[in-house]
From TrEMBL, chain A:
<keyword id="KW-0408">Iron</keyword>
<protein>
    <submittedName>
        <fullName>4Fe-4S dicluster containing protein</fullName>
    </submittedName>
</protein>
<dbReference type="InterPro" id="IPR009051">
    <property type="entry name" value="Helical_ferredxn"/>
</dbReference>
<keyword id="KW-0411">Iron-sulfur</keyword>
<dbReference type="Pfam" id="PF17179">
    <property type="entry name" value="Fer4_22"/>
</dbReference>
<dbReference type="GO" id="GO:0051536">
    <property type="term" value="F:iron-sulfur cluster binding"/>
</dbReference>
<feature type="domain" description="4Fe-4S ferredoxin-type">
    <location>
        <begin position="335"/>
        <end position="363"/>
    </location>
</feature>
<dbReference type="GO" id="GO:0046872">
    <property type="term" value="F:metal ion binding"/>
</dbReference>
<feature type="domain" description="4Fe-4S ferredoxin-type">
    <location>
        <begin position="254"/>
        <end position="286"/>
    </location>
</feature>
UniProtKB/TrEMBL annotation, chain B:
<dbReference type="InterPro" id="IPR017938">
    <property type="entry name" value="Riboflavin_synthase-like_b-brl"/>
</dbReference>
<dbReference type="Pfam" id="PF10418">
    <property type="entry name" value="DHODB_Fe-S_bind"/>
</dbReference>
<keyword id="KW-0001">2Fe-2S</keyword>
<dbReference type="GO" id="GO:0046872">
    <property type="term" value="F:metal ion binding"/>
</dbReference>
<feature type="domain" description="FAD-binding FR-type">
    <location>
        <begin position="1"/>
        <end position="98"/>
    </location>
</feature>
<keyword id="KW-0479">Metal-binding</keyword>
<dbReference type="InterPro" id="IPR017927">
    <property type="entry name" value="FAD-bd_FR_type"/>
</dbReference>
<dbReference type="InterPro" id="IPR012165">
    <property type="entry name" value="Cyt_c3_hydrogenase_gsu"/>
</dbReference>
<dbReference type="InterPro" id="IPR001433">
    <property type="entry name" value="OxRdtase_FAD/NAD-bd"/>
</dbReference>
Amino acid sequence: MQSFILEACHLDQLIQAIRQHGFQLVGPRLQDGAILYCEITAADQLPRGWTDEQEKGRYRVRRREDDAFFGYNAGPHSWKKFLQQPRRPVWRAQKAAHAMQIEAVVEDAPAMAFLGVRSCELHAIAIQDRVFVDNRFRNESYAGRREKLFIAAVECATAAPTCFCTSMNTGPEVSLPADLVMTEVIHDTEHYFLIRAGSARGEDILHQIPVEAATARQLRQAAAAVERVRQQVEAGPRSFDSSDLKALLYRNFESPAWDQVAERCLSCANCTMACPTCFCSTVEDTTDLSGDHAERWERWDSCFTADFSHLTGGPVRADTRSRYRQWITHKLATWHDQFGTSGCVGCGRCIAWCPVGIDITEEVERVRRLEG
Amino acid sequence: MIPAVYRIERRIEEMPGTFTLSLLPGAREEVVSLRPGQFNMLYAFGAGEVPISSSGTADTPGLVHTIRAQGAVTRALERLREGDTLGLRGPFGNGWPVARLAGRELLVIAGGLGLAPLRPIIYAQLQGSMNVHSVRLFYGARRPAEVLYRSELEQWGRALEVVATVDHADVNWPGRVGVITAPLSTAQLDPQHTVAFICGPEIMMRFCVQLLMGKGISPANIYLSMERNMKCATGHCGHCQWGPNFICRDGPVFRYSDIRGWWQIPAL
């Protein structure tokens, strides 16, 4: 696959070319003190020159010393909000003279383009595909949005201390197919994107923007930028050996570690909302005041709520101990049996967005330590 | 996946709060058929859906579901009358492994409303459609007034061995008193050729499994039907997860040898 160079000053032309193909473009934007994924119509809306500082229970944006467009790390949003919508209507029903009528809410799914998808996020989307598309039943809402999706991935040129993609084999270099794959390089006075197409649609776009063939030196510079990130993550505080996680957690359903984490965990569900793979949902059934029109809505749900496991006689998981155990054991162990992969991509969102700073990698190590 | 509209053809009040609905599809709807042990999601207008196992026979044209009014949705279903309509999605899940019964002695062990998902098995035997050596039914209920399908139990007793017991008897109860494990423990059975289907409260199933294994029955010959909260029945909502299993997709009927490890873990 041939790689090209797109000068940073021409990034807007890429954005306009994607939009002209009929895609609704979503990408990173500085908003409400965080880098969020929102609709983007021009390059000057991107968080140019901004990055973030992340640690357990902490996230702050700050200025970079350079003008990087994609010099930030995974934020509070993940792309799942565009594919598995946080809240959506499923069906509408009405009472008629002799019978009720039920009609599916069929959405004319928008053709969306994601700009700035990290490798760990590509893996997260692939994990959700296994749940909603490649499963015995399909989620038609997700599948409809997913089929039309155009992905412009951007390799990481920076890493947060909360990142552990190298431990989960999901990055930082892009390791799954995307329509376009970009690497942002800033070197002295140079600022450019190494860009390559991974699909016919991606090639079409490349033909419409001012690119030129990459030189060997530019290829080396881009590879070196990603390699620096790899080394940074591997040497980072969350790097750990994940090879035996399933067996470790399967052995430790009664570990005292669960009691210890339950003393801190608020059961608030933040980790499950921020997680790019957590897929659980619930339904809401409502009627209007006349009582003749009813609707069913689906919305994100979390295994941390008491309602989640409700049965006659009370919740199956009545305490925080059993709920945290369910979440982490599902994510890192039983997910393998269900879908053939881990449910964790190492993005670190659950660490940064936990209000009391619970760290999934520390909790794994706690289980390991207390096993002895 | 949206519900098909079904009409209530017949409603039987089994006991206060527990009722059986016979359902027929509307003219435009496809007829769904359930294997014993499978379930449908029943939708009460505006109130929501609940997973309910099949309680019908294999050869009746409609669907039969026995329901206990417990929450908002089942109470809304309770208010429906003959001629009313409800929504139905299904069939879901794996049923009882009827094909594995050739020449076996089948123990059907049910507690309370747990008899409902096993009724199709009894019917299949009475109709001679099961290739088994024999079927024995062990049934326990809390009180005589809570004995499900009471008049049918008497009829079934003429064709197969039926042992019924109640936890708390009254003066009109002619039968056994106590939990179901008592008659089960004294039952003569051939452990090499016995298969057990169990459905009831988890605590009851726990004691029955323990007892059957103590009598030498292999964990591979014990099957039980599990219950968990369920919203979608299609493996997407995550609610019914139990270890690596989705009850809706991988159950609700499980072979005990396949789930033994998960069965031991409280609050899983």
